[in-house]
Amino acid sequence: MKDMSPIDRPLLQVAGLSKYYGARIGCEAVGFELWPGEVMGIVGESGSGKTTLLNCLAGQLAPDAGQVLFDLDGIATDTVTMSEPERRRLARTDWAFVHQHAADGLRMNVSAGGNVGERLMAIGARRYGDIRTQALDWLGRVEISGDRIDDRPTAFSGGMRQRLQIARNLVTGPRLVFMDEPTGGLDVSVQARLLDLMRGLVREMGLSAIIVTHDLAVVRLLADRLMVMKDGQVVETGLTDQVLDDPQHGYTQLLVSSVLQV
Amino acid sequence: MIQIENLSKTFTLHNQGSAVIPVIRGAELQVAPGECIALTGASGAGKSTLMRMIYGNYLAASGRIMVGDVDVVAADPRAILTLRRYTLGYVSQFLRVVPRVATRDVVAEPLLATGSDLVAARARAEALLARLNIPQRLWSLSPTTFSGGEQQRVNIARGFAYGYPALLLDEPTASLDAQNRDTVLQMIEEAKARGAAIIGIFHDEAARARLCDREVDVTGFSPEQAA
Amino acid sequence: MSEYNFAYLDEQTKRMIRRAILKGLAIPGYQVPFASREMPMPYGWGTGGVQVSAATLTPDDTFKVIDQGADDTTNAVSIRKFFEKTAGVATTERTAEATVIQTRHRIPEQELTEDQILVYQVPIPEPLRFLEPSEVETRKMHALEEYGLMHVKLYEDIARHGEIATAYAYPVKVEGRYVMDPSPIPKFDNPKLEMAAIQLFGAGREQRIYALPPYTKVVSLDFEDYPFERTRAPQDCGLCGANDSYLDEVIMDDAGRRMFVCSDTDFCRARREDGHQGAMAAAAEALT
Predict the structure, then answer these.
(1) Predicted confidence (pLDDT) at residue A148 exceeds the cutoff of 50
(2) Hey, where are the domains in chain A?
(3) Which stretches of chain A sit within 8 Å of chain B by CB?
(4) Chain segment C102-140, per-residue pLDDT in tens
(5) What is the pTM of this model?
(6) At what angle do helices A128-141 and A158-170 cross, to 10 degrees?
(7) Cα–Cα distance between A237 and B10 in angstroms, integer?
(8) What does CATH list as the number for A1-50+60-78+193-262?
(9) Which residue on chain C is closest to A111 by alpha carbon?
(10) Of residues C159, C224, C225, nearest to A113 (C-beta)
(11) ipTM
């Protein structure tokens, strides 16, 4: 048996996180803990504040109040108040961000290999051969044929681009992955393949992930825990299957009952 | 192993005039290691609801559900996830899997989640699938397209892959032919023999008689009855 | 002469440019923004270099202009004449005699001294521009020393061509800090960037000035397994026979006859005056 004993402290501790757009609430007083290896889904309809929250968590948007404590070698460090260089370094080492639109997360004019290699080079890799080997390995892991390594993502399908984006993000072995509607805009069959891939990677790498989506089927299959948002507020949290099968809040009940059963 | 005290459950339907529907009141139940308990009662009496509460899938209104040393009613999601990974198995009536994943890997997943290496987990999964008469040519396919009986057996293989100390079985033998039914009953007997505490719902009276040490009629936990 | 202020620009503008130059020298490789002026020549014809030269020249200076190594191209002649007219400074084609040399795309073959200033014309000062279109982002990347992207460019080169095919404007790291575009000089010239003279870089359209003080450490970026290589045509100069200078390929007639000659015309002339002769010197003589 491998050593599965998780580190006995949360990876992320969020408290009182709020963001306002003038008088309008982006998200308000959000708090939760995320533990190593956990996948948390954030669901809610458009405008519920889930993407604002994700951007605040990932350091892409400055919140107006609150803390986002990330575990750095045992020290819970507030990523909201840390300096920008530190935050940007986190963003290319310990964190990863998978965008809904691959064009936002990839360099479309750089080959697949260059896209995967960028984070390696950013943290100091200076042997072309090693970078190439790792890029090939990662393309394989996301099921992109090695002979596409020198093709640009402009020549890839939507599903391939999304898988390339995942490879590009995970190559440096991050501990926390933020995903914004990672399966949005993809065909259902392509979604399934991507979900399977992400599940496997999360388990193999012991990743923690925060996934924003409006697709309840996606969170049922990927997320351990769920946070339901409405008008910038968290209205319900809990185990994913519990929240979906026995929703307590009126809004969640409405959300769950609105999904077409297949 | 499993101990339920004064458990109650209500559903509040916020979108239907906030109607509050009590479904279980004052439920009590103990299951020792190596013991198999059958839940009985008419359809709709709350057998599945009780089982789902034990698994943490439904929230309790009050009371205690001890599984090992964890109180499912009060535990945070993380504790329940750990409980489900190492302690409490659940064979539901429905197979819910990521599409496209091979049957072999669906069955192996609980083992991988508890740290087995891939080769050992797959070997164990294949042995179980073979025992349950799932043809080998199907092992590399996703079970989503399988027949009802095949899906049920894949679900059982998955539930029995890891040796959970406590097991919840919801109609494990429904829609199985005689031979497969017998295999499943043997597997449940083996689980009992290794000391698993088992709670089951069996419409199959012969199976109940063969496996179960006691029967608990959940009609006794219905709010009308208790009132 | 009386109709122009010395070297065309007014004194306030020259002070502004000198402040930018001094700042650039203080922070080697850092791109200093400056208020680039309209010059009586189009962008792309060396307006950045001309403004830096104007702010640098004194009446006692001797000025030389080279374009791709040559003193006699339109661009070089025009700029030389411009300063003859507006500054009245002495001009020369001889590298050793010049105190200020404005250059486009070359570093002279002859080693420069501490008494000289080399002024580069720069079209695109931002080495990260190739892959990152946002100026806000590239400035941040410089500030935070996030230079992984530079290697992505070199990676792409090797992936596509089997080697680092970038032959000019080859990126360098200055004093272990800023990544800098050395202007479109051939990478053959990169090792010469560590020199005794002051080097000033002016980009008129992009409104940036940067600089290398004498003896600044300048390292060409590369990979451990694909190290930087200085390349030149594997020939000797047809005119002077030099085997260590940067060569231009010259097509000689409609039949496709060609020869390789030093791109640095002053260097080549001086060698021939010293009696060196290339294999095609006689033939070239016959053509003219």
Answers:
(1) yes
(2) 1-50+60-78+193-262
(3) 1-4, 35, 38, 189, 192-193, 195-196, 199, 203, 220-221, 224-225, 237-239, 241-242, 245-246, 248-250, 253-254, 257
(4) 999 999 999 999 999 999 999 999 999 988 889 999 999
(5) 0.86
(6) 130
(7) 18
(8) 3.40.50.300
(9) C156
(10) C159
(11) 0.90
